[in-house]
Specification:
binds molybdenum atom; binds ligand MGD; single chain; Rossmann fold; binds iron/sulfur cluster
Amino acid sequence: MTRTASAACPYCGVGCQLDVTLNDSGRVAAIRGNATAEANLGRICPKGALLGETINTKDRLTTPLLRVDGGGVFVPISWDSALDLLAGKIKEFVAESGPDSVGFYGSGQLDTEAWYAAGKLFKGALGTNNTDSNSRLCMASAVAGYRTSLGSDGPPVCYDDIDLADVVLVVGSNMAEAHPVLFDRLKAHKRRDPGVTVIVVDPRRTPTADFADIHLQLTPGSDIPLLNALASLLIAAEAVDYDFIEQHSSGYEAYRDFVTSEPLAEAERLTGLTAAQIEAVAKLLAGATNVLSLYCMGINQSTFGMWKNNSLINLHLLLGQVGKPGAGPFSLTGQPNAMGGRESGALAHMLPGYRLAEDASHRAEVEASWGLPAGRIAPKSGLTAVEMFRALERGTLRLLWIAATNPAVSMPDLHQAKRALAGGEFVVVQDIYHPTETSQFADLVLPAAQWGEKDGTSTNSERMMTYSPAFLEPTGQPRPDWWILAEVGRRIAPELFPWQDSGEVWDEFRGITAGRPCDLSGATRARLETGPLQWPCPTEEHPGMKRRYEDQVFATPDGRARFHPWPYRPPREQTDHEFPLILTTGRVASHWHSRTRTGKVAKLVKQDPEPFVEIHAVDASARGIHEGDLVHVSSRRGVVKVRARIGTAVAPGCIFLPFHWGDSYAKGTAANYLTNPVIGRISKEPEFKYCAVQVERFAMGLPAADAAG
Ligand SMILES: Nc1nc2c(c(=O)[nH]1)N[C@H]1C(S)=C(S)[C@@H](COP(=O)(O)OP(=O)(O)OC[C@H]3O[C@@H](n4cnc5c(=O)[nH]c(N)nc54)[C@H](O)[C@@H]3O)O[C@H]1N2
Ligand SMILES: Nc1nc2c(c(=O)[nH]1)N[C@H]1C(S)=C(S)[C@@H](COP(=O)(O)OP(=O)(O)OC[C@H]3O[C@@H](n4cnc5c(=O)[nH]c(N)nc54)[C@H](O)[C@@H]3O)O[C@H]1N2
Ligand code: SF4
Ligand SMILES: [Mo]
């Protein structure tokens, strides 16, 4: 007898709902896109379709493991011993060095239930705000951008808006590879209505740019001058929405004075684009009925990422293109539950329900809800991702519990991250596989149940909450992430962790969002079991909301959205004679992050079997580099050895390295040995999209890549 189940895809933030067919032995036989799910309308991409191959692999982690010597030997231990050991270590360090000596680093791949449990344990029971998510490497700029421009985090738009827009501005997003199902929807829209114009702003000629009507191939890091120049031209042409500006925004005059004082020639110089190119786009924006912008890491992963988000949202305010069908600034989230982590207070400066740790009334609300004494929640934001690894290396962070992320591949400046992991006093890694690049450094390894083996909730890019049931029999004894956190919690403050199942965690969490901008208190587990719902969803009868701000009342204290006149700031590292090229890093369609899953799927591996660097023909020939040559790429922090792909997708002077391959593929290939760990002042997001490098042909006899050390 075949059985079927329906669950959200555990890869990207599109949040496709997948229909899974199981065979007689209960294994995945086939996966298809759910035909009625709003997120994907039956579509699916190869990563989702091939998930079955990632489940019963040889390296599945089946029991807790304890490191027994310095040489990386691990022995299986029971769950009770593992949980007692971890709870004991946490209590010991907190007693000796205070609550800020411990921390939790998770990801947008943990479900909301797990994040809620982590917050209650660390922020509530222990009194440290040291929980952060890899969203810090990803969405932190968008979170800060939405909050400072519109008053609250969370996109105002929905996927249906793609079908209703006539000008689509794609900024720093390679959605053809990173959000393929959503990109298919955009392609279908344009096929149906050839009058739709797609403009892509990206320093590389990506497959997304190839599809566009207009590709603005700007100099990396120069989005603010471009966006400000567009604003200046729109203002000069009086193609702005004065009613909207007057009634629903603040800060327009200062913004207008600032952007119109910048000469267009300066924008040309900084962006490398011509005035004619910028003017053509301004004209399209001026004539548009509905402007939708879709953006991602190309503007987030920068130390000025928040400013870049604000600058893009400024354009929407100027045109009154927000809070109506087919329009608005749409930050595409990367991971399946990056949004849910934000809602449940995963980030070091947040508390559940889009509350801020540094806001006394927000702390009091959460303390009251959790039954904690007043003053238990720490008044200061905790350590953020990069700061955690610095503190771990210094020794002030004595215990780091890492779950559902592989920082030994994904952190900037991997030499530093690996020093921290190697020297850290007590490192816990909770994953579905072992060894990974990170779990090899662990003192304690905890086996998490994976997709299909546990139930839980995730929120996709358009605020759609999807409940995924368990439908696979787990191999060994992995446990759901929320359960592991709650069991450690029970050993520290039993009264705070009464839950019997994930539904009880969810129902407690939704209650704490009542009255907040992300109010989802009406989305009971029982309702979600019958199908996905979009927040805000404030009552149990509420059908969920497609769009926010349709009443043009924003989440700021005065209800007005804010203009921000931000100037251009150069990336924090500059090229010179030693490192004359600009490195940008990112993704390819076939692989997911550190490849722990996609690296096991034959068809995906075939598509992109090995790490590579994309280099322009001019830069390659100046260095005597031919297609397929092995090259050394070096920065001020490290060297990697990868194969050269010569082409014209990157502009002369720029190179591109995907960051998917880590040490378990081959030592010294990971892009992050090169990247710059500087972080933004407010967002604390690192600058993955810009550092200075050199490329040289690899010849036998040269010293081996230092990354191998
Ligand atoms: N196949 C696949 N899909 C994924 C993922 C994956 O690993 N693999 N990861 C998911 C996650 S977590 C995320 S966050 C998303 C990321 O999705 P994207 O952000 O779309 O992907 P990236 O390749 O990181 O970067 C996007 C583009 O930014 C451009 N860029 C670089 N510098 C600049 C700049 O200064 N300005 C502008 N305008 N653009 C710039 C790059 O050339 C690149 O094409 O993808 C999600 N989807
Ligand atoms: N150079 C460069 N670096 C980057 C980026 C870039 O563009 N350039 N992008 C950054 C961004 S946007 C992101 S989001 C990060 C992503 O980086 P990571 O989060 O480090 O990447 P993943 O490989 O997705 O790591 C997820 C881990 O969780 C495990 N896992 C899978 N399912 C489960 C589960 O259910 N429970 C548990 N406990 N574990 C599970 C997987 O095996 C894997 O080890 O990388 C960042 N780093
Ligand atoms: S587009 Fe994203 S969510 Fe949809 S199947 Fe592909 S990886 Fe999964
Ligand atoms: Mo991400």
